[in-house]
Amino acid sequence: MSTPPDPPASPLGRLSGAEARVPGALRTAAAYAWRIIAIGIVVQAAFSVLGQFHRIAVAVFLGLVVAAVLRPVAGLIARVMPRPLAVATALIGGTVLVLGVLALVGEVVADQRRGLQREFVAGIDRIERRLEDPPFRLPADTFADLQSRIGKLLSSHRSTVISEALSGASRLLEVLTVLALALFCAVFFTYSGERQWRWLCDQLSTPARERFAVAGEAAWRTFTGYTHGILLVAATNAVLVGIALFALGVPLAMPLALLEFLAAFIPLIGSPIALAVAAVVALATKGPLIALLVVALIVIIGQIEGHLLHPIVMSWAVRLHPVVVALAVVGGAVAAGVIGAVVAVPLVAVLWSVYQALRERAAGPQEAAARSGEKAPGE
Predict the structure, then answer these.
(1) What is the pLDDT of residue 9?
(2) How many CB atoms lie within 10 A of CB 355?
(3) pTM of the prediction?
(4) Which of the residue ranges 143-147, 277-281, 307-311, 318-322 would you say has the lowest mean pLDDT?
(5) What is the Cα–Cα distance from 150 to 177, expressed in whole angstroms?
(6) DSSP character for 306?
(7) Burial of 230 (0-12, 13-18, 19+ CB in 10 A)
């Protein structure tokens, strides 16, 4: 009669007495913890290095945005003239359009400056009187010496104000440098972006070249779709806001519409912030009734943007759940301020589309067809 084999030795038998008394789950958690810490250190170091070159990254991003907008226009113009001349025509036309809009806004602000000053002074007086009445009942002298206190504050911090002004001048120079580099990149991205990408792929091995080609096609398709869609959202919001503010008689309707256009590039929070500024202007110049109508405008445009415009945008790019969009915006703002909030959503959309494209390529045509209706994370 054969004897049964001995049971396998427990892993605890190979540990010292002190180690054997540590629960296995705790040892496993510790093993993963130091690996996570090491990964975190590497990621932090990578972001620190990238932070030193964030202006270059912003310039490249803006160049890609301009190229995504101008490439279809340049393609249409190239049907009737050589491509270099078509690219130059599209770029010069776009620059003239942007500068023209800015000049028109500046002229409107200059024309309305004196009238606005009177309206703001009268509006502030009205607000002070309402705050003195029920239900607020603030003392009558609360705002009496506000102007003098502001003057004393500025006088006592004059050196700080001057240094901030000089710092602002240096930042303006940095902004102009970034814009010039972005324009330079946009010229080459628009004219020969495909050749540049093919050259980059040709430097890789054959398997990596195929993966990079698939990833690049998915990334550019998503990025251009998102860019065209967000421009549609921003333009629609700006037109609606401009028409509504003009109809309500709110001053600076055109500059506020331009502010709404720029703010729409920050999903979820950009438009409400811009319209809140418009509500403050309406309160100071036209009174609480018009301000309440502007607040109602915030709600209406938010509904249009959330239920009509953004679904169109995401159908052109990658559909992301609002929670994912919100987390991306907040995370980008914490990491890199306003620029991070603008870049976060297209970056997440591009990364998700690249992941899907590479997974479908690895899965094969049958599984890719079965997954074609799969939803994005969070949906």
Answers:
(1) 47
(2) 14
(3) 0.72
(4) 143-147
(5) 35
(6) I
(7) buried
Listed in order, strand segments (DSSP E) in 107-216 are none
CA distances from 315 to 107, 232, 308, 326 (A): 38, 13, 11, 18
> Two tokens at 332?
């980008």
Taking only Cα atoms into account, the Rg of the chain, rounded to an integer number of angstroms, comes to: 29
Q: Which amino acid is at 3?
A: T
Dist CA 305 CA 325 (whole Å)? 14
Residue with the larger pLDDT of the pair 272 and 89? 89
Domain boundaries, the chain: 54-112+165-203
Q: How confident is the model at residue 267 (pLDDT cuts 50, 70, 90)?
A: confident
Token digits for 108?
């409107």
